[in-house]
């Protein structure tokens, strides 16, 4: 037999309206009444009608989360942070992956809008703000995470990619390295561009020329990095870089696999640093010196902002919340004489 809100009201010895207020959180209720109602809900295993609640409050209690690659541990941790912020408020998440395809991103945003989700948190793979601004102009809460889009009207939660990359490359230079290569991410997205700019600025600051033959395109993907680094090693023979800066965790894994295949040791033959930590690092003898990204904190902040915008609506003010990661020093960098 299905339990109704009337059954809960009788069990808690309160009115139906009091049960509704407790469940919806739309009017103040004393702590004593709230405790009685929640106890009755639990004992009777009452399941509120989500559709009725959404119609009454004109909310779906759904939030769309659109990232580049949901299998990437970095984005998985972001998702955990978002969920931590929003679950206690009764929100559920819909996860979508663009696979770094801007056209797929546009399609996913349209589908989420049609599903009438209450907000969207987006790690955009494109650089055209038009489809995002259209949502914002309609009063739709959108929060960009990890990646900026120029001239976009959405709030942003991201890391200081430029400064962190600069510091990591400077560490290589302080260890005596001057032949330094980079495994780049996608330069069509802000995080890829900013990390490359930080890399170049560190070289320029120390009067080290940029060697185009050591600029490797990994597209933020493990397989692409593996193939591109392998090709670079074969093309350059005895004239290899002494160190590589890799612009994300998945590409670092691909780079390590390529070096191993080619019989090169870290750090004896090539030193290696990464923006982001690799998976299962505690099972590998080489501990990468890397930028320690706090993806959970990024997600938590983005979730909090989305909740605020759901409650208050757009306020016309676009803010950026920038987090500064730390360098974790491992044993992957050799000191040169």
Can you describe what's shown?
The protein has twelve helices and twelve strands. The chain is an alpha/beta fold and 337 residues long. The longest helix is centred in the C-terminal third of the chain and has 18 residues, at 295-312. 42% of the residues are buried. The model has no long low-confidence stretch (mean pLDDT 90).
Outline of this structure?
This protein has 337 residues and is α/β, with parallel strands linked by helices.
Question: For the record, what CATH class of the largest domain applies?
Answer: Alpha Beta
Mean pLDDT: 90
Taking the sheet with the most strands, its summary is: 6 strands, parallel
- Which strand order spans the largest sheet, edge to edge or round the barrel? 2-1-3-4-5-11
Number of helical stretches of at least 4 residues = 12
In terms of DSSP E residues, the strand content is 15-25%
Helix/strand structural class:
alpha/beta
Indicate the radius of gyration in whole angstroms: 25 Å
CATH topology-level fold name of the largest domain = Rossmann fold
Q: Describe the global form.
A: elongated
Classify the helix fraction into a percent range.
Answer: 40-55%
- The number of distinct β-strands equals 12
Order of helices and strands: HHHHEHEHEHEEHEHEHEHEEHEE
Going by CATH, the homologous superfamily of the largest domain would be: Response regulator
**How far is the first residue's CA from the last residue's CA?**
79 Å
CATH architect. name of the largest domain: 3-Layer(aba) Sandwich
Oligomer: single chain
Total domains:
3
Low-pLDDT windows of residues: none
């Amino acid at each position: 037999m299905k339990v109704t809100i009337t059954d809960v009201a009788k069990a808690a010895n309160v009115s139906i309206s009091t049960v509704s207020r407790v469940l919806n959180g739309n009017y103040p209720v004393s702590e004593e009444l709230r405790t009685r109602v929640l106890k009755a809900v639990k004992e009777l295993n009452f399941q509120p009608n989500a559709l009725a609640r959404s119609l009454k409050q004109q909310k779906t209690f759904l939030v769309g989360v659109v990232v580049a690659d949901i299998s990437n541990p970095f984005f998985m941790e972001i998702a955990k942070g978002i969920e931590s912020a929003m679950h206690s408020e009764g929100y559920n998440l819909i996860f979508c992956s663009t696979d770094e395809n801007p056209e797929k991103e546009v399609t996913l945003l349209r589908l989420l809008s049609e599903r009438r989700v209450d907000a969207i948190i987006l790690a955009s793979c494109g650089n055209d703000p038009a489809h995002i601004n259209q949502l914002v102009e309609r009063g739709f809460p959108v929060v960009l995470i990890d990646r900026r889009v120029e001239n976009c009207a959405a709030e942003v939660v991201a890391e200081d990619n430029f400064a962190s990359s600069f510091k990591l490359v400077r560490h290589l230079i302080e260890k005596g390295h001057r032949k330094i290569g980079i495994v780049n991410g996608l330069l069509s997205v802000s995080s890829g561009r900013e990390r490359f700019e930080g890399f170049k600025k560190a070289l320029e600051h120390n009067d080290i020329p940029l060697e185009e033959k050591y600029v490797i395109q990994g597209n933020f993907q493990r397989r692409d990095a593996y193939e591109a680094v392998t090709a670079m090693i074969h093309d350059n023979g005895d004239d290899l870089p002494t160190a590589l800066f890799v612009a994300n965790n998945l590409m670092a894994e691909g780079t390590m696999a390529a070096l191993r295949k080619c019989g090169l040791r870290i750090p004896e033959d090539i030193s290696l640093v990464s923006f982001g930590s690799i998976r299962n690092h505690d099972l590998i003898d080489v501990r990468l010196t890397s930028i320690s990204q706090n993806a959970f904190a990024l997600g938590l902040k983005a979730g909090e902002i989305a909740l605020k915008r759901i409650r208050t609506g757009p306020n016309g003010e676009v803010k950026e919340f920038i987090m500064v990661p730390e360098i974790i020093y491992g044993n992957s960098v050799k000191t040169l004489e």
